[in-house]
Amino acid sequence: MVSNLNFSKDLKVGKICEDIAKQYFESLGHEFVCFNEVPKNFKEWDIKMRKGNEEYDAESKGDCFIKPERFEYSSVFNKKVTIPKVETGNIFIEKECRGEGSGIEKTKAGIWINTFYNINEIWTIETDKLRQLISQNNFKIAKECGDVDSHTVGILIPRFEFIDWFTVVPFEKVIYEYQPQGVIG
Fold first, then answer.
1. What is the pLDDT of residues 76-90, one digit of tens each?
2. Does position 172 have pLDDT exceeding 80, yes or no?
3. What local confidence, expressed as pLDDT, does residue 4 receive?
4. Pick from 22, 104, 106, 139: CA 20 to 30 A from residue 42's CA?
5. In which domain, by residue range, is 144 found?
6. pLDDT for 3
7. Is residue 1 a part of any domain in this protein?
8. Does residue 128 sit within a domain?
9. Is residue 77 part of a domain?
């Protein structure tokens, strides 16, 4: 697993992916309630939404390391060059950070959402179903995946092998500078 190893940069990407997740749920007709900005609740959920009279929480994770092949102009070579595709083939599910349970171990959210930022895909799954998938398989564990000294540990799920467990949808990025809104606290 590749990481920025820079918490402040990872946090900005995470906030962008939370906003993309919010947009996705809104596109389904759900109403945004708030983002979780209370430090003591960070491990419990990220986004609160409403469908009809029912509120629900979602855990939002962003992956910006899987990238499609692209072409860019190189001033060194004076021509367009191909930047190769980057594909890990995995979904990283965090389970521990800084010596404490986190991610799948601590969330109380009913929905888990992974935003594959660079390939414009959202993968969602009910959190209990994700826990079931993990418990029924012997997935590879990745260690030291977060920022320096975070001791982040996660589960690597081969995403193409287990795609049928998830709802996978394309999305169009509409990115705004992160501005806290509807904050609880």
1. 888 898 888 888 899
2. no
3. 47
4. 139
5. 7-167
6. 46
7. no
8. yes
9. yes
